[in-house]
Design goal:
Strand content: 15-25%
Shape: globular
Distance between the termini: 26 Å
CATH superfamily: Response regulator
Structural class: alpha/beta
Number of helices: 5
CATH architecture: 3-Layer(aba) Sandwich
CATH topology: Rossmann fold
Largest sheet: 5 strands, parallel
Number of strands: 5
Helix content: 40-55%
Order of helices and strands: EHEHEHEHEH
């Protein structure tokens, strides 16, 4: 299962990669919104993990673009600035959840697995309803 991590900080990218790959996820990395969009166009992941504050375009901009083209793609928003405004803005744009940086490996895994499980259960309910 592929997870795209979008952050402009190498330490966050490498940390997320180590933690997620240890759990057998395939991890794609992007250092910018533009790079992330190029990756998604070629290879849609199962989940996006997006930082809020990045140069040029921020994570909220990326979420708007994802919502336009891939509304079913679940997004976890992460930020070192977990203000009520940021959390609300992410929720308003349809994020599955929010995780505050710095987070522990266990917090990251628990959050990712929880969102993926919700998506899996949601898909089952839709297929049962049809």
């Amino acid at each position: 299962m592929k997870i795209l991590v979008v952050d402009d900080e190498d330490i966050v990218l490498s940390s997320c990669r180590l933690v997620l790959e240890a759990e057998n996820f395939e991890v794609l990395l992007a250092r910018s919104v533009e790079q992330a969009l190029n990756i998604i166009i070629k290879d849609i992941p199962a989940l996006l993990l997006i930082d809020v504050k990045m140069p040029v375009h921020n994570g909220m901009y990326l979420m708007k673009k994802v919502n336009e083209k891939w509304p079913e793609l679940p997004v976890i928003v992460m930020s070192g600035y977990p203000t009520n405004e940021t959390i609300k803005a992410a929720a308003d744009l349809g994020s599955a959840t929010f995780i505050a940086k710095p987070f522990t490996p266990d917090e990251l895994l628990e959050t990712v697995k929880s969102v993926l499980q919700k998506e899996k259960n949601h898909g089952k309910k839709e297929s049962l309803g049809n």
